[in-house]
Amino acid sequence: MTSPPASETKIPVYDLLVIGGGINGTAVARDAAGRGLSVVLCEKDDLASHTSSASTKLIHGGLRYLEHYDFKLVRESLKEREILLRAAPHIIWPLRFILPYDEGLRPKWLLRMGLFLYDNLGGRELLPGTKTRKRGQGSRFDVLKDRLETGFEYSDCWVEDSRLVALNAVDAAQQGADIFTRTEVRSIKGEEGLYRAEIQNGVNLKTIKARGIVNAAGPWVDSLLSTVEQSDVKDETTLRLVKGSHIVVPKLYDGDHAFIFQNSDERVIFAIPYEQNFTLIGTTDVPHEKPDDLPQASAEEIQYLCDCVNEYFETQTTPTDVVWTYSGVRPLYDDKAAEASDVTRDYVLDLQKYETDAPFISVYGGKITTSRKLADHVLEKIKHYYPDMGKPWTKKAYFPGGNIPEADFEEFYQSQLDHYPDLDPKLVRLFCRRYGTRVTRVLKDGVGRLFGGDLTEADARYLVEYEWAKAPEDVLWRRTKCGLHMSESERESFAEWFRHAKLN
Questions:
Q1: Alpha helices in 333-396 (DSSP H)
Q2: What is the mean pLDDT of residues 338-356?
Q3: Distance between CA 177 and CA 166 in Å, rounded?
Q4: For 61-87, what is the HEC assignment?
Q5: Residue 216 and residue 31 in contact, taking contact as beta carbons nearer than 8 Å
Q6: Beta-bridge partners for 205
Q7: Is the Cβ–Cβ distance between 210 and 17 less than 8 Å?
Q8: Which pLDDT belongs to residue 324?
Q9: What is the pLDDT of residues 369-422, one digit of tens each?
Q10: Number of helices and strands in the chain (H, E)
């Protein structure tokens, strides 16, 4: 927005430095760049390489948050659910959930009242409301144990979480933002109304300046404050790290619906159709000590999740059935709740200044569903520092590839079958799901080599060129989940090709 002083022409000066390439950081970068700010985003690893790719992959209001009287969070989340569904119907779609009533747990009237609120708090328009369901005549209860005869069916949405992060970054770049992955912020110093930051990519160290900083470093949000010179870092952290683990097992039931199960410990567990051939089960809530400690599903967590679903499904699951696990650390604001599962999932924005009048805002908590609104709130909080900043714009904007007429994915998919009559319809659907209306850009030079697991050369080349994929795992496990469908030899073969192919 403002030209740098002549004395600073060798050091790039940005309006905003965003630190963290998860869902919150990329959402802020997208919104800010679209309002005319010059933005740089630095992520020390890959986009969505931590918490944002380890979610339960839901765009939801958070039904259980009603029990904590967190009506504001639920209402905001439900509103965002429909905004995001319209904005990215290729990677977000409706999902019906079965909530069986189990005698001795929450009473049926309480479940119905909660679902009534859930249907009406957020001004639902696109999604169908709650229905009462019961066993019999091929109902979805028939895969459950005999004691479970009635319950409810309600709506939420599925999201390809790491793809949503990538699309935020793609949109930010299209608006002019610089996106630097595998680039760590080493130090920050306030000086002359700006911040000077040293950023490092491999062996390369570079200096940049910014008129403001958004610290969206997730589990490292407090740790990053130690890089700020002359900052008064608090002795008592405001961050509560909570690990959530998920397991993936061979498909436990047919159908495109999910289940939500109550447990005697008052938590809930989801069982969700996953990647055509599997069922995703999660999640746990376990205290996590240090952000640098790699989160992994423990044997106790795996057994806990198996035991939870075994209380409900006729088909029993054991740890030996688990084909994959993943874990993430939720960087929650510490509201001093006794139990990890009770800690608020709402976000808190902490605005500070360090030896300068320029804003430095740290983001605590949040969830994928509220990421767009969080970004809006961040920019609202700092807008008086940027008097020429544009107005909010993301509420009615599409994500890249999401400009599908009437958000009708099936109609769009059918139209693409006509464009690619020589391709396997299954592969066309996968391309449409991954890329939406950008599928023509992906397939401009054809499909190319097939690596297995429905991963193609076209995918890899596009993801490197447009979505900052720089290593085989970026493609196999984040931009896609093709690694789950490939054999070890196929994954190794792809990695070998990736390392030697001329992709840039």
A1: 371-382
A2: 75
A3: 13
A4: CCHHHHHHCCHHHHHHHHHHHHHHHHH
A5: no
A6: 200
A7: yes
A8: 97
A9: 999 999 999 999 999 999 999 999 999 999 999 999 999 999 999 999 999 999
A10: 13, 22
**DSSP three-state, residue 437:** helix
Alpha helices in 7-50, H assignment, sequence order: 23-34
Bridge partners (DSSP) of residue 153 are 98, 131
d(CA 452, CA 459): 12
**Residue 231: which pLDDT band, with cuts at 50, 70 and 90?**
low
Angle (nearest 5°) at CA 159 between 155 and 165:
145
C-alpha to C-alpha distance for 67 and 331, rounded to whole angstroms: 22
233 in helix, strand or coil?
Answer: coil
Q: How far is CA 444 from the centre of its chain?
A: 28
Q: What 3-state DSSP class applies to 342?
A: helix
110's CB contacts (< 8 A; 6+ apart) are none
pTM for the full predicted model: 0.94
What share of the chain has pLDDT > 70, as a percent?
A: 94
Look at the block and give the residue holding tokens 């319209």.
Answer: 86
Helix axes 108-120, 71-87, angle to 10 degrees: 50
* Both structure tokens of 190: 């306030």
Which residues share a beta bridge with 241? Answer: 331
**At 188, is the secondary structure helix, strand, or coil?**
strand
Cα distance between residue 442 and residue 370, in whole Å: 29
Going by pLDDT thresholds of 50, 70 and 90, the confidence category of residue 232 is low
